[in-house]
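Field: COMPLEX_INPUT
Field: COMPONENT_COUNT = two
Field: RESIDUE_TOTAL = 708
Field: MODE = joint
Values follow.
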Amino acid sequence: MNLRMKLLVVPCAALSFAGGVALATSPEPKPEPLPKHVLPASKDGNLVLGLCDGETSMEVPGVKDGQKLSRAQAITATAQLMDDWRKKNPDANWDDVPGPVLAQATPPATKKSPSPAPQPNPGSKPSGNEVRPGGVGAETGAKAVPQQQKVNLQTGHTYGAYSERDEQVWADSVQAAVKEGHRVFHDAEALGGTVGVSCDMCHPDGANTHPETYPKYQVQLGRVALLRDMINWCIENPVRGKPLADGDPKMRAMEAYIYAQRKGVKLEYGKH
Amino acid sequence: MRLPSGVVTVLAVVLNSGVGLAASPPTPQATATPPRLPPGVSATLWRLAVPKGSEPTPERVALGEKLFREKRLSVDNTVACMTCHEPELGFTDGKPLSEGVKQQKVTRNSPTVLNALFNATQFWDGRAGTLEDQAKLPILNPREMGMPDPDTVVKKVRGIPEYVTDFQKVFGREPNFDDLAVAIAAFERMQFSGDARFDKFIMGDAKALTASEKNGWALFNGKARCNSCHAGNAVSPLFSDQKFHNVGVAAHKQDFVTLARKGVQVVRTGDEKQIDELALNSEFSELGRFLVTKQENDVGSFKTPTLRNVGITGPYMHDGSLTTLWDVMDHYNKGGVANPFLDGGMQRLGLTEPEIDDLVAFLFTLTDTKFDKLNKEQLAKQRARKNTRPERDNAIALGKKGNLGDLAPNPDLSVKNPADLGIYGDVTPVTTTQQR
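Field: COMPLEX_OUTPUT
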C-alpha cells in the first residue's frame, strides 16, 4: 500500500484542516484544474478502465479503445477492478449494504482473503425508504383525507401552516427525485459514460458511497470535496463521461438518491 | 437508454404506479385507480383527492353532466351550473362577477371546474371540503340558482319523470339531494386537465416553448417569485399551494380596514348561519377565508387558484377585478395593495415590461391543448389591452418609491435556464388502469 492509498483509507483530519487553511488564506481562490487519472495506453489498443482511486487500471481484453462495453462485460470488468482494490486495501471499511444497521458491520475479518466485492444487482429497486412500514408515503393517511377536508385545513399564511396532504405531496416529490437518481445511477448512458460503466457496478444500491462523510478531504482530488465533486470524479474516471454541472438535474437527482440510501446514518463530515 | 430488461421492468412498474416508490403496500388494497390521465395530471394527486367510494363511474358521470347542464335546478329555470361554468369557455363564464337568477351579480368570480377535483377545499374561501358539498350550495344560494331549500329541489327533480328513471338506474332509488350532488361531483371528477404545451416542454421537447416563454418559466421560479404560492411539480402539477393568502385584492376597492374591523366584530358575535349569509351576500364576503376560520390573520385571504388553463379563465382574482394577466402581473409587481393583513410574502418584484411580457407568455402555455383556439383568442384579446394598465405602478415596482424589499435574483439564461434545474421533477407518468 502506498502513501496515497493510505490517505484514502486512513483518517486524515490534519490534512483536511491544512486544506481548509490553504483555502482560507489564498486571496484569489482560483481553483486549480483537478488532477487527472491518466490511464496507461494498452499495447494492443484495448480499452483501459480506471478505478476511482485514481491509479489502479486494467485492460479489458477483446474490447478496443473507443468501444463501449455491454452491461454484462462492464459488470465483469468492474468487479475485477473492485477485487483489485480490495486486495490492495484489505483494511478498508466497506459499507456493504446501505442502511443504518448494516453500515456498522465489522470490516472483513481476514486480511488475506477479502471477500469479493458485492455484485451489482441489475434488477434492484431503489431501496430508499419507500416501503418503510408506518412511514409517510402517498397512501399514508389517504383514508383520512375526506374527513380531514371537512375541518379547517389551514389558518394563517404561507409558513408553518400545512396539511397532511401537503406532507404527502412533498414526500412523493422527494421520492420522485430519489427515483430519478436511482435511474441515472444505474444507467451508463444517462451518466454520459463512454465505456458502459455505471455507478451501481462499484456501488451496488449505493453501497460504500458514504455521503455522510462529506465535505471531506478527498485524496484523489487533492482538495476538500463535496459529494457532487466525488460523483463527478467517478463520472470522469471510471465512467469516462463529462462532469456534470453542480446544478444539473441528474447531479441533483443522484445526490438525492445517494443520501436517501443512507437515511439515519450519523452525519460525520470529514471522516475517512 | 440502454438498460437490462430487469431495470426497465422495474422502472416501468415504478413509473406506471405513478406514486411508484411510496405506493407498494404488500397486500393489494382496493384503492381507487385513476382513469387514464394525460401528461400534466398527477396520479398521486388523483389518489389523494378522490375519496374512496367516490370514484366516478360512467353512469354517475353521465347523470352528473345532465344535471350540470340542467336549468330546472334553479328556481326560475334560467340558471344551470354551466351558466357560470361553461365547458366551452374552460368551465368559466368570462365575466368579472358571475350572474345568477334574475341577473343578480354574485360576489365572486366563477372559478374553473377544470382540475377542481384536485382542490384541497372548494370555493374561493375553502368553505366546502368536497365537490359533493360544493355542488349543493350554489343551488341554494339566493343569488345563484335561488332554490329555497333542499326539499324543494328534491320535489322538483322528482317531478321530472326522466330524472326519476335516471336516478333509479344509477342509484337504485328516488332522486334525493345527496345523490344529486354525488352525480354532479362524479362529472366534475372527470374534468381533469393537463396536456398543455408546457407539459410537452417539461417532457423534453425543448422546442415546445419559445425563448420568451422559457424566460417566463425561469422568472416564474425566480425573480417573479410566483412559485412561492403557485409551486408546481410533477407530483402536484396544479401550480397552487391550496392555501389562502391576502394579496391585497380586496383592499383596492373599499376602505378595507374599516370593513375588516366591522367584520371581526360581527363574526365574534354572530352565529354560524349569519356568517354563511355574510359570505354569500354581503360586503363582508371580501373578508374571504376569515369568515370560515374566524382567525384574524385570514382576513381578506383567498385560495391560491390553479394556474392550469389560466389563459382562458379570466378575468382574474376572487372578484374578477383584474381583466388581463398583464394587470395581474402589475398587481404583484408592486407588491399587492398594502393592508394590515397582507401576506408576508408579498413584496415588490421589480419586473420590467419585457419580463412581464415573458411571464404572461409563459402563463398562456399552461392551457390544455384542447382549448388552443380559445387560448389564442384570449391572448390576442388581452394583448390588445396591453396599454390599458390600471394596476401599473412602476415607481413602487422598480423601487423608486417606498421600501418594499430586495429583489429576487435575475435568472441568467446565458448560463442555463434555472427553471430547468430539476425544480419541476420527473414527468408525471401516464397511468393505465392495469397497474400494480
